[in-house]
């Protein structure tokens, strides 16, 4: 018996709880080694902090972009309040989701950096504008909030080692803010994709069930159903191991009872069947294609992207020949003889023949064949990686250049601030000296008219008044001291008035005055 098709009865099952209170989000939290904040995280410290990622909030602060009505995230927004001389910092971002305890914690290597990746949930009822932004942009920057418990400074490399820390929150960032961890991001799962995907899986499951039920005999054993006996899962492993179906085994021995036979006895039957029918276990076309591709490029080196630098790129094969493109010969098509020893492929590389493409018009009823080399797909993938690397490098260069300019600006600002401080101190000291000199001259001016004790009364509060006000107060004090508002009465003074001197008055007592 020669097999042309291999099939296994399979039932697909996909279980997923859909809860519209939450939206799933994946977050690339941080990476190891050095970051743009000039701090260094080792894999030991990262692994040590792993458990603290559980049950922490996903935070966001929504703002309108300058000059527009478009909303986006800000960054780590903090407000400083001073009450009764005490400083209090208030974090303005609010929780819009959570990283649960079961968060699928994992590591991913991207551009030679090991990223911590977790899954979380956005609250659909409370995220409000934050969810709108995530649905609009899908991918946003991320920055972690941590509490550092232990650190050390590297004087040689001039950066800080974070030896022990705890996560306290993950903050979503706007497009105008670059994360210190380059590549740190948050990606919202597409709700439309989720719903469609589940629908498609269910539809596929039903079609597969119908298809298998039509092709299987009435006494088939569903190897994914426990009703087929206690060892049905182990039967499946045997079927996979020997690339055989239950129907083929029954052709060999129709009296086999799958509900009673042991795994060991069944494997013995399969081995016996293989000896009697060596052609039964022939390869499928797809399996043979994969084996030919692997054999053509055995021991091929790997490039920086993880792709094999293949000397040959598979084109096609038949029962005797395999055709491929040869890298060293400008990708010209070549032909090799090959043979099969069971499931082992042998390619006679010394049988290589250079081929040429011949264009022949097809006759009515014939179909044309278009060959597609995997070389184009690999080259496209490599080009994509190269562009991604170039973009990342240029982005990092721009960020570092911006950071350098920012550091220079901050340094210049600090110098200007220090100069301003010195000028203010000089001005204050100068004004103080001039004031003291003016006060001394003013008090000396009045020292001949006022006693030292009287002048000191004014001096004690001199800082509360201007020089003009001080001078006024001194004049007032001198005036009070010299002024005399009493008149002594002379009893011996007698005034004689002549008639001419009589006061001219209409008062009735005016004529009583002495002449």
Q: Any overview of this molecule?
A:
Among the domains are: 172 residues, no CATH class; 63 residues, no CATH class; 88 residues, no CATH class. Helices cover 35% and strands 25% of the residues. The radius of gyration is 48 Å and the shape is elongated. With 515 residues, it is an alpha+beta fold. The strands form four sheets. The chain has a seven-stranded mixed barrel with strand order 1-11-9-4-13-12-14. Strands 15-16-17-18 form a four-stranded antiparallel beta sheet, with helices on one face. The chain has a two-stranded antiparallel ribbon with strand order 5-6.
User: Any low-confidence stretches, pLDDT <50, length ≥5?
Assistant: 1-18, 214-231, 277-282, 485-489
| Discrete helix count | 10
Report the principal-axis shape: elongated
On the 0 to 100 scale, the average pLDDT is 76
Q: Give the class from helix and strand content and strand pairing.
A: alpha+beta
Element-level helix/strand string:
EEEHEEEEEEEEHEEEHHHHHEEEEHHH
- What is the percent of helical residues? 25-40%
Measure the end-to-end span: 174 Å
Which range does the strand content fall in?
15-25%
Trace the largest sheet across and list its strands.
1-11-9-4-13-12-14
Major beta sheet, specifics? 7 strands, mixed, barrel
Number of strands: 18
> Over the alpha carbons, how many angstroms does the gyration radius reach?
48 Å
């Amino acid at each position: 018996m020669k097999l042309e098709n291999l099939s296994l009865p399979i039932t697909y099952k996909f279980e997923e709880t859909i809860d519209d209170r939450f939206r799933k989000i994946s977050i690339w939290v941080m990476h190891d080694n050095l970051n743009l904040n000039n701090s260094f995280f080792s894999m030991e410290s990262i692994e040590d902090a792993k458990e603290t990622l559980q049950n922490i909030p996903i935070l966001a602060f929504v703002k309108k972009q300058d000059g527009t009505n478009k909303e986006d995230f800000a960054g780590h927004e903090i407000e400083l309040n001073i009450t009764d001389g005490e400083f209090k910092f208030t974090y303005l971002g609010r929780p819009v989701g959570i990283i649960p305890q079961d968060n699928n914690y994992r590591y991913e290597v991207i551009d030679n950096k090991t990223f911590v990746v977790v899954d979380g949930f956005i609250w659909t009822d409370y995220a409000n504008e934050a969810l709108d932004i995530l649905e609009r942009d899908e991918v946003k920057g991320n920055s972690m909030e941590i509490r550092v418990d232990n650190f050390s400074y590297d004087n040689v490399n001039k950066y800080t080692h974070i030896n022990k820390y705890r996560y306290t929150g993950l903050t979503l960032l706007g497009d105008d803010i670059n994360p210190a961890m380059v590549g740190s991001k948050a990606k919202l799962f597409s709700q439309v994709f989720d719903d469609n995907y589940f629908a498609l899986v269910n539809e596929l499951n039903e079609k597969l069930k119908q298809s298998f039920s039509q092709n299987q005999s009435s006494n088939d054993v569903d190897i994914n159903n426990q009703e087929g006996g206690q060892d049905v899962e182990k039967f499946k492993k045997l079927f996979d191991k020997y690339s055989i179906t239950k129907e083929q085994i029954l052709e060999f021995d129709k009296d086999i009872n799958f509900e009673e036979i042991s795994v060991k006895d069944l494997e013995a039957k399969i081995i016996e069947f293989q000896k009697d029918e060596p052609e039964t276990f022939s390869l499928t076309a797809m399996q043979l294609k994969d084996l030919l591709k692997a054999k053509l490029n055995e021991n091929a080196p790997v490039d920086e992207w993880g792709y094999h630098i293949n000397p040959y790129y598979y084109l096609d094969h038949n029962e005797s020949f395999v055709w491929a493109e040869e890298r060293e010969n400008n990708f010209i098509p070549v032909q090799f003889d090959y043979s099969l020893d069971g499931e082992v492929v042998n390619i006679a590389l010394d049988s290589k023949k250079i081929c040429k493409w011949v264009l022949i018009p097809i006759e009515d009823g014939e179909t044309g064949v278009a060959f597609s080399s995997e070389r184009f797909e690999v080259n496209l993938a490599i080009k994509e990686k190269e562009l991604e690397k170039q973009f990342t490098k240029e982005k990092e260069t721009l960020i570092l250049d911006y950071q350098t300019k920012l550091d220079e600006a901050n340094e210049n600002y600090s110098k200007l601030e220090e100069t301003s401080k010195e000028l203010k101190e000089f001005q204050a000291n100068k004004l103080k000296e001039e004031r003291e000199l003016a006060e001394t001259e003013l008090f000396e001016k009045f020292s001949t008219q006022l006693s030292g004790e009287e002048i000191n009364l004014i001096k004690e509060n001199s800082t509360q008044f201007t020089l003009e006000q001080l001078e006024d107060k001194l004049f007032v004090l001198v005036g009070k001291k010299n002024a005399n508002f009493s008149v002594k009465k002379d009893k011996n003074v007698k005034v004689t008035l002549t008639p001419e001197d009589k006061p001219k008055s209409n008062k009735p007592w005016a004529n009583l005055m002495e002449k």
